[in-house]
Amino acid sequence: MAETTPTTKPSGLVLYVDDERGNRVVFEQSLKTEFNIICASDPETALDIMAKNDVAVLVTDMRMPTMNGEELLRIVKERSPQTIRMVITAYADVDPIIRAINEGLAVRYIIKPWIRTELVQVLRWATEAHVFSRSSAALHLRLIESERLATLGSFIGPVVHDLKTPLMSLLTNIEVVSELAEAAPVLRAALAQMRQPPANRDRLYQVIDDLEPVMADFRKSILHLNTMITSMRDLGKPGSETKGPLDTDPLPIVRHAMAVCQNLAMNVRAQIDYAGPGILPHVRMSATELTQVLINLVANGTQAVAARGTPNGKISIVAREQGGVLELAVRDDGVGMAADVLTRVGTPFFTTRAEGTGLGIAQCQRLVGTAGGRFKIESQVGVGTTVTITLPIAA
Ligand SMILES: Nc1ncnc2c1ncn2[C@@H]1O[C@H](COP(=O)(O)OP(=O)(O)O)[C@@H](O)[C@H]1O
Ligand SMILES: [Mg+2]
Questions:
Q1: Which residues in 30-125 belong to E strands, given as ranges?
Q2: Ligand 1 pocket, 377 CB below 6 A?
Q3: Which tens digit of pLDDT belongs to each residue from 355-394?
Q4: Ligand 1 neighbour 296 (Cβ under 6 A)
């Protein structure tokens, strides 16, 4: 049941879904001075509320008895794509988080127990992002929905390229064969002059009659193929849609990425730390995209340390400003990558992990590239890996 009724505040409505009453009370009490909060005790009630209200931000628990948070997120993504979706979870398992982030189900994960100041920051960002998305109807906020598509585009890019050559040859030849079809009346006249057994003559007439419609069909199919192949190729191009303001303070996102992977790190007695200035310049990339990049990189580092199994493993995020760009390096002393892995990493769907999707690095490279940044991986088996991204600083 809904326990509060929405009032109209300019910041937009924040809907919190959690089956534990205590959690709902704490959430509402500590945030209601800043945000317009409404709570629901289960996903069904949440969907009811969403059908009747314009919800700016959905914050959901993951484990609930009737429907889990992931299902709720999928439904909301479908029905109300402009709502900014976030998860609050005590989940120790990082893979479902990465999968959901890479599938665009949620843009942020808040780890329980949460800290009020951080949550306020994240909610402010989310409500602003929602306003932004609504104020630019043409650029309608598609957040990370489009990114899977774009990844697919970059994956099929080489295939599309290879298809283009035979297609061009077909397109040229079809014009020549079409001319042949246009000669049908001449062929018919010639056939009338020929001495042929009636069976042959009928057969030839049939072939000539078929020429024109078959060629027309053929031509249409080839043009259709051409359109399809061209649009497949365009999938991989950076879209014009935007993911929020291209001006982001990286530090809260660095901390957020560290928090998401904290559980996994603790389980293997590893440490995640940050080394760099306490204030960083804003970068020219949306918060959503930077979140996705950093979570993927820190998760990869943590998983590599976990896979190595050495105690006191370390994952460091090192930041430094240099020559008008911000350099962020994620360094780990995990398993490292062999030469053959290193050459293939970043190819969409390439993974060496049973639970992996092989989309992480591919997405990171694409997002950093689109932002005008650079992406570099250095790795050595048994020593560790450093992934360095450089991002342009926001004006
Ligand atoms: N920090 C790292 N250390 C060692 N190997 C890594 C690291 N990051 C990525 N890899 C390798 O690259 C592969 C692809 O990574 P990624 O694109 O993030 O997909 P996934 O994490 O789903 O496997 C991983 O399966 C792993 O083999
Ligand atoms: Mg990964």
A1: 36-40, 55-61, 84-89, 108-111
A2: no
A3: 777 888 988 998 898 899 999 999 999 999 999 999 999 9
A4: yes
